[in-house]
ATP-grasp domain-containing protein (Allocatelliglobosispora scoriae), 106 residues
Amino acid sequence: MRRFESFRRGPDGHTTEARVWWLDGVPVQVGAHPDNPAHLPPPEPDLDRVAPLVRALHCRWITTDLALRDDGVWRVVEVGDAQVSGAPEHADPMAVLRPLADFAGH
């Protein structure tokens, strides 16, 4: 059975979400979700509870989207293979590309 959870919204009504790129279970970039880049409040999501779950997937390269609940808890709302995961305009692409290049030995 599903249950309703109330997520924090910005002034424009969009949910406050973060996108995390992971390589071998290690977060290589954390940023605002590209659909609402101005909504990532400090501090960034605490990934201590999420990291072991990501590692348990045994996927080399994935993204997770997290939404901030009204009570301040971050909730994983989507997991993907990172092939179609966009980044906000202000994100540094090298934060993601450098670890991938290092892994590939370039």
In short: The mean pLDDT is 84.
